[in-house]
Amino acid sequence: MTRRVILRPASDGERGSGSVLAVALLGALFTLTAVLVPVLALLPVGQAVQGAADAAALAAADVASGLMPGVPCATAARAAELNGARLTACSVDGPNATVAVSRTVGGFPIGSRARAGPAP
Question: Is residue 117 a contact partner of residue 76, using CB atoms and an 8 Å limit?
Fold first, then answer.
């Protein structure tokens, strides 16, 4: 006895549903990419802002310790500016300097703090 298998075509209600699913998945992937790429692009900027804070703190500490001439916070502001950031706070306690810098990228403010001075 031989069995016959009858293949039936998909009903009209299911025709094209794979294409709709593929378009929906591509749309979701595109949307996720459009959101994540700008956010991930901010990571290197955060590292650059941290570098600017470090440079500003070191510059202020050099002036505060008498190694370089000038005004500590003015020197820190110039160092931050040369590194693409803006000095938002500066305090000097003896030879120690603490600074805060910020930079705005794409409407997002990115800030960082650093402290420098002689070794304890």
Answer: no
Q: Write out the residue range of the structural domain in which residue 116 sits.
A: 48-120
Cβ count within 10 A of residue 2: 3
Q: What is the pLDDT of residues 64-77, one digit of tens each?
A: 999 999 999 999 99
On the 0-12 / 13-18 / 19+ scale of CB atoms within 10 A, 79 is: buried
Instruction: Say if 87 falls within a structural domain.
Output: yes
For 7-31, b/e burial (b = at least 16 CB within 10 A) is eeeeeeeeeeeeeeeeeeeeeeeee
Query: How many independent structural domains does the chain possess?
Result: 1
| pTM assigned to the model | 0.70
Asked, for residue 104, whether it belongs to a domain, the answer is yes
Place of tokens 């009858």: 6
Radius of gyration over alpha carbons of the chain, in Å? 29
